[in-house]
Amino acid sequence: MVDVGLRVRRLLDAYAWAGSTARLRLLDFDVVMRSDDARVAALLDELYAPLAGAGEAEHVLALHAAGTSAHPRWEVNLDGVRLLRSRAASIAFRHLLWEANQQAITRTQGAVLIHAAAVADGERAVVLPGPMGAGKSTLAAVLVQSGLAYLTDEVVAIDPESGTIRPYPKYLSLGPALAALAPPAPAGLETVLGDQHLAPATAIRPGAVSGPARPAVVVLPRYEPGADARLEAVPAAEAFPAVARHVFHLDRRGDEALATVAAMVASCVCYRLVSGDVAAARDALLGALR
Amino acid sequence: MTTATVPRARAGVPAATVDGTTVIHWQGRLHTLDPVATLVWRCCDGEATVDEIAADLAPAFSVPVERARRDVGAAVAELSRLDLLARPDEVVTSGAPDVRRLADPPGSCASCAEREWSSHFELQLGRRRAVVATDRDAVAALICDTLAAHVLDEPPSPGADTPFVGISGPEALPDRGPRALYLLHRGDTVLARSRDAAGAVRALAAYLATFGDLAPLGLAPLDGLVVVAGGVGMIVPAPDEPVRFGHELADRGVAVADLAVTIVDAASREAVVGAPGLRADERALAGAAPALGWGRYPLAALGVRGAPSPSRALLTYAPDRDDLRDADVGLAALVTLAESVAVVDSPSPDSVAAVLHRAGRLHRTEH
After folding, report:
1. Is residue B282 a contact partner of residue B146, using CB atoms and an 8 Å limit?
2. For the whole model, what pTM was predicted?
3. Residue B28 at interface with chain A, using a CB cutoff of 8 Å
4. What is this model's ipTM?
5. At how many degrees (to 10) do helices B197-209 and B137-146 cross?
6. How many beta-carbon pairs below 8 A join chains A and B?
7. Nearest-CA neighbor of B85 among B16, B32, B18, B26?
8. Which terminus of chain B is more exposed, N or C, with fewer CB under 10 A?
């Protein structure tokens, strides 16, 4: 009896997909993304280009048209299981990106994961933990534009043995203020992208992707509309619970995760950054780094 | 708690400390202990009393023992409140039955939750429970008669009164003209329509069966409509206009199942119409309008829209991850069917009928 997963894979391989990405390594999520719209697959290839590799992927994440001509639907499937069915291509596309990230978080076992952005100054990484809306991606984008290297805008994966960060250089998701940094939507895909502004790091600055780096600075960002940029040093003991709040998988590997984060924070210079202006925040941070 | 209390920190609680501040993760929550609370927590070894801990710590903080006793007492009370101390009478229980209530259906809507239902029942379906509601007394009586073996004696607990599925019926039957329909719905999705209460309850039983423990029976649920002619069945995608689709198939001699969810036996390539796994008493449903009878039907084909292929069948009938059913079981069955049953293009009632009548002739010749 052949494993069901292999049989599913064989059937999905036989489907007449219009386009397919390269094999992508989203941390430990080993996936190929497919679509029956070749332009969608090409866009995904571009967004995840730094994560591309050779060989056959373990999983298939697909975006395809379903329904009837009178009632068109878009579906997102992972390995033959339907994740979403929607009337709007933009909702299906957004879900596909979200799902890819969720799978990367769920399936990555050998690293401690923090909801954070990170950039690198040589081998020294700057870790920016924070909830959605704190300004992580925005700060990462302007720091990359200023010459720092890109590690991730979403998930910092720390190897508990070495303490180094594994790069997860997915596309950056930018707010309206930085929309100009994102390449224009490919022709015909405006409705698929919707109001998202997605930019591969290399579109912001060629050659921007970093290799593994060791955390040296922790910045706790907070976006406050209209606020002047304020960067203040905080003791490691104060930064520790603030970072721990953003750790994934505490239920599964709490001891290892907390010990790894404690070691990281204890070895870093820690700041709190409050700002309502991205350029001022960038300047304050770059000043502290130099 | 008294000063003679002997507190003991819970063992195996994930925690780490930076410069005296401890972060603890316990039961899904993060707790931060300041340096004083950290010291107290570490001193809770299950041997020293609160008094003794205070006496030990007073010199370290250069405070009188009386003050240390107050502070340690407060810290121990807080640790206890956060459940970070082992309780003396704590008994570890395990092996509790993993019974889950089916709830929060995709597509559920506030108006359904707020709707006035006259009867609620809680049903046990293998490892799962489901609350079923109706606004018609005749339907309630039929549910009691048909699914008596599954209806729990006690009424649904408070907070569980939002039904997983409901059957709403017409206010009054008209003397003339078309009769209003009984609707089986889950959230804002209508699953089945019937002109009589018995038909709605028959659909309810079949639907609930798809959430039962099917895997041990070698069965799996699949989203798709079973249609049958000449003793041979076929699964087609849920039609956009089910009532019209059903009428057009009936005109062509094809019977249609009550609802567009079916149960399949992939090994024998059969559709199982009915409520397998449930102890449903069909006698109460004898008055239901004629429909596809409960039983097993050999499957001649899987219908898809567009160029037919096993891979197209896989994507057409992909089980939903969020549908509260066992998606893996459905996927395994679907793959087996896609590999072993003909996949045909079936965009219209005409094409469905043609496939079934051809397969039916073949079936009769072979048998």
Report:
1. yes
2. 0.87
3. yes
4. 0.88
5. 50
6. 111
7. B26
8. C
Alpha-helical regions (H) of chain A: 4-14, 38-47, 89-107, 136-145, 190-193, 201-204, 236-244, 250-266, 278-289
Chain B residue with the nearest C-alpha to that of A251: B28
Q: What are the tens digits of pLDDT across the range A183-235?
A: 988 888 988 998 899 999 999 999 999 999 999 999 999 998 889 999 999 99
Q: Which among A12, A82, A244 has CB closest to B311?
A: A12
Q: For residues B344 and B232, what is the distance between their CA atoms, to the nearest angstrom?
A: 15
Binned at pLDDT 50, 70 and 90, residue B111 comes out as: low
Provide the 3-class DSSP secondary structure of residue A44.
helix
CA atoms within 13 Å, Cβ hemisphere of B145: 15
**Under the phi-then-psi rule, with left for phi > 0, alpha for psi from -120 to 50, and beta for the rest, what region is A275?**
beta
Tell me the C-alpha distance between B146 and B123, whole Å.
12
Rounded CA-CA distance B214/B210 in Å is 7
Distance CA B10, CA B20 (A): 19
Q: Give the whole-angstrom CA distance, residue A232 versus residue A177.
A: 25
Q: Checking DSSP bridges between strand A269-275 and strand A214-223, what pairing results, if any?
A: parallel
B-chain residues near A265 (CB < 8 A): 18
Query: Contact B19/A236, CB-based, under 8 Å?
Result: yes
B66 Cβ contact partners less than 8 Å away, ≥ 6 residues apart: none
Q: Can you give the length of chain B in residues?
A: 367
d(CA A279, CA B53): 53
Cα-Cα-Cα-Cα dihedral of B335, B338, B341, B347, to 10°?
140
B20 touches chain A (CB under 8 A): yes
Cα(first)–Cα(last) distance of chain B, in Å?
A: 81
Distances (CA, A) of B147 to A33, B263, B272, B275, B284: 45, 19, 18, 10, 10
**Closest among A190, A84, A199, A205 to A153, alpha carbons compared:** A199
pLDDT of residue B92: 41
Q: How close, in Å, is residue B66 to chain A by CA atoms?
A: 29
* Two structure tokens written together for B244: 């019209």
The answer to whether the beta carbons of residues B234 and B303 sit under 8 Å apart is yes
Radius of gyration of chain B (CA): 30
Q: How far apart are CA A183 and CA B41, in angstroms?
A: 54
**Residue ranges of the alpha helices (H) in B188-298?**
197-209, 242-251
Give the Cα separation of B32 and B351 in Å (integer): 67
